[in-house]
Fold this protein.
Amino acid sequence: MKILIMGFTKLKYMPYINFYLDNIDRLKHDVHVLYWNRDGKNEDISKYKGCILHEFSCRQQDDVLKLSKLKSFLKYRNFTKKLLKKNGFDFIFVLHSLTGVVVADILKKKYKNRYIFDYRDVTYESLAPYRRIVESLTKNSAATFVSSDDFRTILPQNCKDKIYTSHNLLVDSLKHRDEKTLYGTDSEKIRVAFWGFIRHEHINKEIIRKFSADSRFELHFYGREQKIALSLKEYSKKISAVNVFFHGEYTPEQRYVFARNTDVIHNLYSNIENPSSLHAMTNKYYDGIIFRIPQLCVTGSFMAKRSENAGVGFSCDPYDEYFTEKVYSYYKNTDKKEFFSNCDFELEKVLNEYNRALKIIKEKVEA
């Protein structure tokens, strides 16, 4: 079978691609991967041995208004159309809704029930035409995977029998569950750390302002330093934040080192700056339960509700006058033994759903 995995960014920024690649026999199937090189820099492709790679190269900043990206999106569409026409794939994995939206007409016409739609972000669903395209992508898919159960409220209810939860779980991390327990470092200060794509400028400025004024904490940012990250660095200098640190870009494997030196995970996103945050589940949620590190989630979000119900995180509001005091109290009053048990129970639940999704992949590919 000739299979295409369609991505919408660089390979190293699509860790969830492994969810598919690790469960497709590359010797038995002809596996192609489409990805978008947005910064013109080379990346390590050694782990994609056995795959035929198709690079769409077009410079595009991530942290700019989506409407300003339309020209690039059209170029991506044309590139993808030519790729589909030339190769005549048997089955497609569509990673991210925007990936599918730009070629939705082709998927409906030529690949109905021959693709899996991976839905992991809310973008323009408030616009009726866009929402209808997303609904069409779901209805015409062989199966649709969601990275958060709350996304089910957005997708068409008459498709619920073909919607499955996949989770943003990096399986390799399971080998490092005891990283912090065995190699964790001690600190007089509570080290709060964020890793990933640094965005949501306003809420992060508030977080920096609050933690920088509380000497009981350190705040660490790990991630690419584009426009917003640079603005936050400048803001930190402006207010003389001596306990706020920016560490730059990293590889997925370096998270294991972060875990050793982290006491609390900053998993806070602005529901105002990005409404999708209300529904989403981030990679850091799973890092938290795998590495057994408490995490902070924004009050009112699905992730906050889930983390508190599972006993693995704390729901809070960075704009609260007593924000750092509440974080300090939460951390100091967390029963370590009970917390570890909660993480283990939540991880078991996640893995059961994850394995069910793997079974669906194999059923669809081997059908």
